[in-house]
Amino acid sequence: VQLQASGGGLVQAGGSLRLSCAASGRSFSGYSMAWFRQAPGKEREFVAAISWSSGSTYYTDSVRGRFTISRDNAKTAVYLQMNSLKPEDTAVYYCAAGWKITAQDMGVPYKVHYWGQGTQVTVSS
Questions:
Q1: Are the beta carbons of 122 and 90 closer than 8 angstroms?
Q2: Parallel, antiparallel, or unpaired: how do β-strands 114-124 and 9-12 relate?
Q3: Using CA atoms, how far apart are residues 57 and 36, in angstroms rounded to an integer?
Q4: Rounded distance, CA 25 to CA 21, Å?
């Protein structure tokens, strides 16, 4: 599967952005999907995931309550709605796919099967 992320940009602290990730290929509904991010000089970190089966979601603590991950299997897309953005949310955001693994397992980078290219999110203070 190929993943194409979009929707990044520059926003002021407290603002919102919605990232999209379009997936090509078959059997999208069998993939758990996730968002990761990488800030300059830091390692890539898990942000949020949504499972392939039940649609259950999983978030890292720093974004829980502010970010919402969702998916549309008919459109083969996954989204990340980001509200109440903070300067520390500044990073390149990547979408990822894992074949029939749990949302929690999507939080482990080596378990991810496919990566998309990143989209830059910059939050100004």
A1: yes
A2: parallel
A3: 14
A4: 13
Q: State how far the Cα of 27 lies from the Cα of 17, in Å rounded to an integer.
A: 28
Provide the pLDDT confidence category of residue 26 given band limits of 50, 70 and 90.
confident
Q: For residue 87, which phi and psi values (nearest 5 degrees)?
A: -55, -35
Find where tokens 């482990």 sit. Answer: 108
Q: Are 92 and 37 in contact (CB under 8 A)?
A: yes
Q: Which amino acid is at 89?
A: D
Q: Could you give the angle at the alpha carbon of 83 between the alpha carbons of 80 and 84, nearest 5°? A: 150
Each residue of 27-67: pLDDT tens digit? 999 999 999 999 999 999 999 999 998 889 999 999 999 99
Taking the C-alpha atoms of residue 78 and residue 91, their distance in angstroms, rounded to an integer, is 18
Mind listing the pLDDT tens digit for each residue in 67-89?
Answer: 999 999 999 999 999 999 999 99
* Beta strands 91-99; 114-124: pairing state: antiparallel
Q: Where are the beta strands (DSSP E) in the chain?
A: 2-6, 9-12, 17-24, 31-38, 45-50, 57-59, 67-72, 77-82, 91-99, 114-124
